[in-house]
Design brief:
The complex is a heterodimer of chains A (376) and B (273). By secondary structure, chain A is α/β, with parallel strands linked by helices. In chain A, 39% of the residues lie in helices and 21% in strands. In chain A, helix 3 runs parallel beside helix 4. Chain A starts with a strand and ends with a helix. Classes of the chains: A alpha/beta (376), B alpha/beta (273). At the A-B interface, strand 3, helix 3, helix 4 and strand 10 of A face strand 2, helix 2, helix 4 and helix 9 of B. Strand 10 of chain A pairs parallel with strand 2 of chain B.
Chain lengths: 376, 273
């Protein structure tokens, strides 16, 4: 236990990113994520990485895409308003298949909303925020060590699947300072980008269905083209319907076909539970405390399904974990993932505990809701 | 004979611009400058935004990136920071650089990374069908100013100077030799450079302003072109709506990356690793 440190979630993102080999960060100040930019500005120069504070949110995601194409492992961090501003260029990274990590430390919205208060209202924005059909990977850790490891995971998935990965913290996870035993390098794996040994043709997007592109970075000796328009195998613009369909499908399938590899989740006390709570991020922690309190007091036996991968949604994993049991969805918004749970669990009874006042849903509120369900 | 063919991506031809468009002249000047400087195509990244100018990146046989409207400079910033010894050239239009991308334009000038920006100013949003732009002359008819443009226009050169660009020049497509000269000079310059090239859009600007063919439009640009040496003796009133051409700024100050290396990395101890 000699590696125990006091760390906030935001600080753990910084340490996780450096451990993952992140060597480029561009950002813009915004509450409650600024500590990530501050941490990266301090740590990156020590490892010969580049930090730059850009002129706005749009510029910072533009810069990380450019740096990723230039061969760097890249990250940017923001919160709601900035996440809104970044959506257009997030689309560039999706269509051009550029690896990057984008952290959104969620605060109360809409608009300027509640800058210093936690919320979980951006999960649907993470799924559908940028226009058009696109695949998405979004991860939402809850516990300190999990934040560190999930940050590394975010980089690994981005590089492996050549896609942006959204790391969703909520303000409560980002700002809570807690003791954490930092995992050593033997406790995690680092995935680096794969390159073709030799490029026979410049058709960098010519891949089997469901495979990410295997291509060189800029300046590796091949005149490659990276395009924000829909493109053919060469990356050159096209409106040919057959080519458009193949490229659109391949991008969707590269995530869909690898869901098992991408989906991370945890179950707590689900085996003997009569009801399973579905909660992520800070709400998973509230729920776990409620569950343990009830068990200590000899109350009803409740379990927790905690998705860490929010997108793609852990459909099969959730079905398997809850069976026919009733489900209580606890989320810090007016109901977003509850619709996904209802879509997946068609025959279960689904309850929800929702709140968006700027304050967290406390364990005692969850206990009260469980009692209410039991007595109904 | 200059070997500029290696800079052309023939597979993507033909080019998409309207017959008589000035962009072809600019395209030729840029590949000629590459050839004169003997830059290795692999050491060049060409980045562009959205609009007629945005389509340029596709046709260079170098590392190329077509981005979003106004944001080309931000992507270029990431490319340059991650590969300081490579050449990064950015194409932007007047709408791209001065309207939707205005913030990136001024901050790129201030930051002074060694990036080469070429602003193709055709005074109109051409690709979208001829809407008013920040450089459309006052009084001109466009599809969104059907009764004439009431707004004053931006001066790219003044903006770049004030924001801190270290090389600033303006030329027009009527002066290909002078254009090549300033483009080549900007490529040799160490620091952020802005070269504005005034170009003709007879289709979507000229057509609605009695300049609907290439020649009358080019003639109109020519009649309003004043060399910098001559402009020095002219009053502000006389220079209204004129394109003053020449080299306006050629100065030196440390660029972002050398300061980052000298100050930040050394202080953080990164140079010892």
């Amino acid at each position: 236990m000699n590696n125990v440190k006091i760390r906030s979630g935001n600080e753990l993102v910084v340490e996780g990113a450096i451990a993952a080999g992140c060597n480029f960060f561009a950002g813009y100040p915004i509450t409650p994520s600024s500590e990530i930019a501050e941490g990266m500005s301090r740590e990156l120069p020590k490892v010969h990485g580049i930090f730059i504070q850009m002129e706005d949110e749009l510029a910072s995601i533009g810069a990380v895409i450019g740096a990723s194409l230039g061969g760097k492992k890249v990250m940017t961090a923001t919160s709601g308003p900035g996440f809104s501003l970044k959506q257009e260029n997030l689309g560039v990274a999706l269509i051009a298949e550029v690896p990057l990590v984008i952290v959104n430390v969620m605060r109360g919205g809409p608009s300027t909303g509640l800058p210093t208060r936690g919320a979980q209202g951006d999960v649907m924005q993470a799924r559908w925020g940028t226009h058009g059909d696109h695949p998405v990977i979004a991860l939402a850790p809850a516990f300190p060590k999990e934040v560190f490891l999930t940050t590394i995971d975010a980089f690994n998935l981005a590089e492996k699947f050549m896609t942006p990965v959204i790391l969703l913290l909520d303000e409560l996870v980002g700002h809570s300072h807690e003791p954490v035993e930092l995992p050593g390098p033997d406790e995690y794996e680092i995935v680096n980008r794969k390159y073709p040994e030799k490029l026979e043709t410049l058709e960098i997007y010519k891949r089997e269905m469901g495979k990410p592109p295997l291509r060189p970075d800029f300046f590796m000796g091949y005149p490659i083209h990276i395009e924000s328009l829909e493109h053919n195998d060469y990356g050159y613009p096209t409106t040919n319907p057959e080519i458009v369909e193949v490229q659109q499908r391949r991008r969707l399938e590269k995530i869909e076909r690898h869901k098992d590899e991408i989906i991370r989740y945890k179950t707590h006390y689900t085996d003997d539970a009569e009801l399973v709570i579905f909660a992520f991020g800070s709400m998973a922690r509230s729920a776990l405390e409620a569950i343990e309190t009830l068990r200590k007091e000899g109350g009803p036996k409740i379990g927790l399904f905690q998705p860490i991968t929010i997108w793609p949604f852990p459909e099969e994993q959730l079905k398997k974990a809850v069976g026919e049991k009733d489900v209580l969805v606890v989320e810090l918004n007016w109901g977003q993932l509850v619709y996904e749970v209802e879509r997946v669990l068609k025959t279960n009874k689904i309850h929800s505990l929702l709140k968006m006042t700027g304050m967290p849903i406390r364990p005692d509120e969850i206990i009260e809701k469980i009692k209410e369900i039991k007595n109904a | 004979m200059l070997d500029y063919e290696k800079y052309l991506r023939y597979r993507t031809f033909p080019v998409p611009w309207c017959p008589g468009c000035g962009i072809g002249t600019i395209f030729k000047a840029v590949v000629t400058a590459f050839a004169k400087l003997e830059w290795d195509p692999n050491d060049i990244a060409v980045v562009s935004g959205i609009g007629c100018s945005g389509r340029l990146s596709t046709y260079f046989n170098t590392n190329t990136l077509h981005t979003t409207h106004g944001r080309a400079l931000t992507f270029a910033t990431g490319i340059k920071l991650s590969n300081p010894d490579k050449h990064v050239v950015v194409f932007s239009g007047d709408g791209d650089a001065l309207a939707i991308g205005g913030n990136h334009f001024i901050h790129a000038c201030r930051r002074n990374l060694n990036i080469k920006l070429i602003v193709i100013n055709n005074n109109i949003y051409g690709m979208t069908g001829g809407q008013v732009s920040p450089t459309t002359p006052t009084g001109f008819v466009t599809t969104t100013t059907p009764y004439g443009n009431t707004e004053p226009h931006f001066d790219t050169v003044e903006l770049a100077k004030a924001a801190g660009a270290t090389y600033v020049a303006r030329e027009t497509v009527n002066r290909p030799r002078q254009m090549l000269k300033v483009i080549e000079k900007s490529f040799k310059h160490s620091g952020f450079s802005v070269v504005e090239i005034v170009s003709n859009c007879h289709i979507n600007l000229g057509r609605r302003n009695k300049l609907k063919h290439p020649l009358p439009m080019l003639k109109w640009i020519d009649e309003n072109t004043i060399p910098l040496s001559k402009a020095k003796d002219m009053s502000e009133e006389e220079l209204k709506f004129k394109y003053v051409v020449g080299e306006f700024v050629h100065r030196h100050r440390p660029d972002y990356l050398s300061l980052y290396e000298d100050l930040v990395v050394k202080k953080a101890g990164g140079d010892k690793k």
